[in-house]
Amino acid sequence: MRVIEIIFYLFIVLAGTGGELCVTRAMKTIGEVTDFRPAALARVMFRAMGVPWMWIGIGLMALAFFSLLGMLSLENVSFVIPVTALSYAAGALGGRFFLGERVSLQRWAGVALVCIGVMLVILGKG
User: Fold this and answer.
1) C-beta separation of 28 from 47 below 8 A
2) Do the Cβ atoms of 61 and 96 come closer than 8 Å?
3) pTM confidence score
4) Would you give the end-to-end CA distance of the chain in angstroms?
5) Model confidence pLDDT, tens digit, residues 65-79
6) Using CA atoms, how far apart are residues 121 and 124, in angstroms rounded to an integer?
C-alpha cells in the first residue's frame, strides 16, 4: 500500500469517525429530539449550528468524504469500503473515551470480528 493510500485511509477512518463523534457531542448538548414536525426540526438545526462541536464535526466529515473520493479513484470499491469498516473500531473507542459511553464486552467482540474481517480483506488484496 502506498503512503498516499494510507493517508487517505487514516483520514477516512479517523476524520470520519471524529466528525461523527463531534456531531454526537453537539446533539447531546442540544438534547433529545422528540418533536419531528418541520418547524421543530428547523429550530433544532439552528440551535445545533450554534454549537462549535457541530462545525468541527462537519469539517472532519467533509475531510473524510473527500478522502474517500480520492481513495475510490485509486482502488476498487470492493477493497475500499471493507477497509473503511475500521471506523467501527474507531467509533467504539471514541464512544468509550471521548463520549464516556459504556461499551459492553459483546460490542467489543463485534468490533474485534470487524477488525479481523478487515485484516482478511487487506491480506487477500494480493
Assistant:
1) no
2) no
3) 0.89
4) 11
5) 999 999 999 999 999
6) 5
Q: Provide the 3-class DSSP secondary structure of residue 114.
A: helix
Q: What is the pLDDT of residues 1-28, one digit of tens each?
A: 789 999 999 999 999 999 999 999 999 9
**C-alpha span between 108 and 89 (Å, rounded):** 8
**Cell 421543530 -> residue:** 40
Which of 50, 2, 25, 46 minimizes the C-alpha distance to 100?
25
What are the percentages of helix, strand and coil residues in the chain, rounded to 5?
Answer: 80, 0, 20
Please give the full DSSP string across 64-108, using - where no structure is assigned: HHHHHHHHHHHS-HHHHHHHGGGHHHHHHHHHHHTS-----HHHH
pLDDT on residue 1: 79
Helices 105-123, 87-97: inter-axial angle, 10-degree rounding: 150
